Amino acid sequence: MKLAATIAAAAVSASAATSNPLHNTKLNIPTITIAPTVEMPLQGLGTWEYNDTVAEAAVTAALDMGYTHIDTALGYDNQEGIARALKATSRPRDSYFITSKIPGGQNHSAATASLDLALEQLGLDYVDLMLTHFPATWEGEGGKEMRLQTWAALEDFVRAGKARAIGVSHYCIQHIKDILEVNTIPVAINQVQYHVGMGTAVPNATDGIEWDWAHGITYESFSPLCGPCDGSDHWELINGTLVTSIGAKYNKTGCVSQHSDDDDDE
Ligand SMILES: NC(=O)c1ccc[n+]([C@@H]2O[C@H](COP(=O)([O-])OP(=O)(O)OC[C@H]3O[C@@H](n4cnc5c(N)ncnc54)[C@H](OP(=O)(O)O)[C@@H]3O)[C@@H](O)[C@H]2O)c1
User: What domains lie within the chain, and their CATH numbers?
Assistant: First the structure.
């Protein structure tokens, strides 16, 4: 199984090479190979819904603790706070992995402008992983032609040395097939909502997981605790019967059991 997580999830194919700066931190978080020479840490700090101030504090704390992966997006409007934390840290750049995202549904020139803005806001020379956030605009506009133009801009971004790997988010099989008709750089990642007990969130959230694996695309989980879920659906993933029973097996709470990096399909 090839499954990675923005925050946490079961994971395999973990690398443990101690020469890798990503492993030389207090947490020693395992990594997965998502593209040639690109290792992605299997757990990371998500920053959705953090403003600049909270993001700066969270990233500072995470880097101090030994986190190696920060996930943000142009649309989160917090990259300047993250930039302040990255500027202040004594950690070398190759000891942490940065994922960002640009909005979907853009033509080549608009996508290029978004890519350069994302990098400028982060104050970085490159990101480790850049994604297109959605197969269309948030309003559903754009379609295949804009998917292809956004992808072409992402490939140019890699060729310019501004991203080490590129991928997609919220893509179903057909959306990825569109990209595979034209891509010259592999689709490294599909970042999709995925957590224990899937089915309580959007109905098609797991679309394509096995197909992605079969095509060499790492399926990365976001919202492992179902951040978007309300009320009892959310609490089911914190202290519900299923997660509590899984946690009991490992002498953990239900919530923590979902952050296991054991090589285990649960
Ligand atoms: N590609 C995309 O479109 C996309 C979409 C969504 C998310 N993401 C990425 O994935 C990251 C994670 O997703 P998410 O933010 O939805 O996170 P999540 O981990 O699924 O859920 C976060 C929520 O869980 C709560 N929580 C965490 N630990 C808890 C505990 N022990 N007990 C009770 N409640 C707890 C948090 O409460 P508090 O607020 O009180 O801490 C927060 O409300 C995002 O930050 C973002 O980077 C990407």
Answer: 3-225 (3.20.20.100)
Is the CB of residue 224 below 6 angstroms from any atom belonging to ligand 1? Answer: yes
pLDDT band, very low/low/confident/very high, at 207 (cuts 50, 70, 90): low
- Going from the Cα of 225 to the center of ligand 1, the distance in angstroms, rounded, reads 6
Summarised one tens digit per residue, pLDDT across range 126-181 is: 999 999 999 999 999 999 999 999 999 999 999 999 999 999 999 999 999 999 99
This prediction has a pTM of: 0.90
Kindly list the catalytic residues.
Answer: 76
- Is residue 9 over pLDDT 50? no
Distance 93 CA to ligand 1 centre (A): 25
For ligand 1, mutation pick of 225, 234, 236, 257 (most atoms within 8 Å of CB): 225
How confident is the model over 47-52, as a mean pLDDT?
Answer: 97
CA distances from 20 to 24, 29, 41 (A): 7, 11, 11
- Closest ligand 1 atom to residue 253 Cα is 31
